[in-house]
Amino acid sequence: MTIRDARGTTEHATAQVLARAAGRSRAAAARERLLVRSGIVLLGVALLVLWEFGAPLVVERRYVSSPSEVAARLAELVLDGELWGHIGVTLGEAGAGYLIGIAVGLAAALVLVAVPVLDEIAGPFLAAFYSIPKIALAPMFIMWFGLGVLPKVLLAALMVFLIVLANTVAGVRGISPGLVEVSRVMGARGARLVRTVVLPGAAPAVVASIRLTFSRAMVGAILGEFIAAAQGLGFLIVRSSRQFETATVFAGIVVVAVLVMLVNAVIRAVESRALPWCAQRPHG
């Protein structure tokens, strides 16, 4: 056997070993996904059964409703068209606030990072503002900006802005100073340094904040609707709670949770296509 034949045989054997290892890895990953999804289904079913039959043993039934009653009420809201109007209003408020909060948060973070003195000055005030319960600001926003859509959008934007700002600044600070210095030595300065080093380095933290903050935008919009609104999911929940329509209250809560899950799934899909190196493995 020549050296070339021996080398070819070795390469073929190596390829077979690698192929078998890759196959085992894919099979293990498939089994894990199946296990996780089965666990999610089983846990969900167990919680629904516990709610249906166990909750009335602890709390009076009219205050907790039941999954069957909630499903029936949800079907009524869908069929008569009332639910779609509430969903449209809340999604519009949360979506506008989400986009505004991301844009302003990223811009403010870049300014603070570019001017360290300004970061030192604004830091204590931002920390104090972050600690304020946002529910305490909702009535103030209603008084300042009226009963329309604007205060809900601003509340949603505020909830998103603070998280995006903090995560972006933390992401930039987490970049290795040595990497920045080496990049400067190689000629990367100003906008080029930001584009080639700072933004890619901070991208995982920024993307994580963008992925996770839509739920905060929904919270901000619904908080505003709790205080003063004539339409929206928050208005539906508050009105139903005042009238002791427990099934409608839970139906509204379920819709909010489903909407957040759907929007987060869309954001993950966009992220995996646009920024595959930042995409994290979804849990479940």
Automatic annotation (TrEMBL):
The keyword Transcription regulation does not apply. Coiled coil: none annotated. Residues 87-267 form the ABC transmembrane type-1 domain. CDD domains: TM_PBP2 (cd06261). InterPro entries: MetI-like (IPR000515), MetI-like_sf (IPR035906). Keywords: Cell membrane, Membrane, Transmembrane, Transmembrane helix, Transport. Pfam families: BPD_transp_1 (PF00528). One of its GO terms (biological process) is transmembrane transport. It is a multi-pass membrane protein. The keyword Transmembrane applies. It comes from the Bacteria. One of its GO terms (cellular component) is plasma membrane. The chain crosses the membrane at residues 34-53, 98-118, 125-147, 153-172, 193-212, 218-237, 249-267. It is found in: Cell membrane. Belongs to the binding-protein-dependent transport system permease family. This is NitT/TauT family transport system permease protein. It comes from Nonomuraea rubra.
